[in-house]
Amino acid sequence: MNLAVLLATSGRVLRQLRHDPRTVALLLVVPVGLTGLLAWILSGNPGAFDRWGAVLVGIFPLMVMFLVTSVATLRERTGGTLERLMTMPLGKGDFLGGYALAFGAAATVQALVVSVFTFGLFGLDVAGARWAVLVVAVLDAVLGTALGLSLSAFARTEFQAVQFFPAVLLPQLLLCGLIAPRSTLPGPLEAVSAVLPLSYAVDAMQRLTVEPGVSAAVWRDLAVLVAFIVGLLAFGATTLRRRTP
Amino acid sequence: MPSSDAAAIEVADLRVVRGDVQALRGLTFRVARGQVVGVLGPSGSGKSTLMRALVGVQDNVAGRCEVLGHPAGHPALRRRLGYVTQVAAVYDDLTVRENLRYFAAVIGAPRGDVERVVDQVGLGGEVDRLARSLSGGQHNRVSLAVALLGTPEVLVLDEPTVGLDPVLRRGIWQVIHDLAAGGATVLVSSHVMDEARQCQRLLLLREGRLLADDTEAGLLARTHTDDVGDAFLALIDGADT
Fold first, then answer.
1. At a CB cut-off of 8 Å and minimum separation 6, what does B25 contact?
2. Optimal mutation site among A13, A81, A86, interface B, most CBs of chain B within 10 A
3. How many angstroms away from the CA of B116 is the closest CA of chain A?
4. What's the predicted TM-score (pTM) here?
5. How does residue B157 score in pLDDT terms, banded at 50, 70 and 90?
6. Strands B70-71 and B9-18
7. Of A18, A154, A204, A239, which has the maximum CB count within 10 A?
């Protein structure tokens, strides 16, 4: 790894984003709009938005960043820029770390904007620390980036990459405790949900919703999320090849 | 280990399988430093595969394939080799300058290199335009400029003149000759036979085999023809009978 190359890569990714103001607008407006829509839908049902709001603040950035990263890295593969970089002194870690850092920064801005609207305008009330909600939201977004980086190697076209969304994220959404508490799932499904990263993201948000401060269980969830991110980036390094057929 | 008098490129019995196709079927040749060598052949003859093997991004390579005394793809080569692919491998959503600055940072090119390569390919007026807004020829020249960063000793250029008008083609060849005059070794592919006269030496490829390895004059004399296209046909006819 070479820090200068990693930082140059993340600067380059952010510069690409800057030249695409429509995507930036979508990154910021869509999660805010969806959270606002949810607040409005639940407005006739006292306490319901407070129950669901934090969880969704964590899930929207994950979805968005997964899609953005999948398409961005697939473009690098099909556009020849990745092949060119692979002939240069750029380590796989510089490439993956650069993307993770750039989208992590974008996710931080996104989470800040969403939080300001959600806590301020939409009136979300959680028992736990608001900064922790923000941290979980950013980690979720970086998790989405890490998933996108490691899985896009298996897609040949943008159509296929987009299909990974229902294939990879929807099962996690069904099993993460959002539809039914994980403890009530049939044994095998509960076991599967225990090794899916989204389960820990949702668990952290559900705890922050009802438990005051930041409990030890939330810290454990955060640690698990960080471990998943590191593991997925390491896996991504194995799916990134200098030589291709 | 590699000595300073190692050939720029040393290939022996190079074979490559791509999918279920034998793309290269045993190539052997050597390129001395400072030469401009043309790789000519119809599309599908294995030109791009040869270039990918030399820059170290091609998988399933067998036989000897060395650049500057190192096996192709060796980390020591990553600052000493420039590569241009058939499609302009640059970021369309960045400006010319932003593209070059990024690649310059990756290879650790000296300060001022971005301005130097921009002038070299004649894109001085376009540095702040997005790559996607450039014409096809300008787009290719950005890609060539990236390969010139850091003044590589060996340049591998895969069809850098494809789709360019004659004036731009002449401009690209001028850049190639300037590089060779500066001591660089250039391997350049083309499917346009009349670009042969720009090269000191020609490698004619067909169906993954080396049909000829000669100068243009030598090739024409040997086949009693007066252009490389006819020489190519004469060699094919000779090989088939």
1. B15, B207, B208, B209
2. A81
3. 19
4. 0.90
5. very high
6. unpaired
7. A204
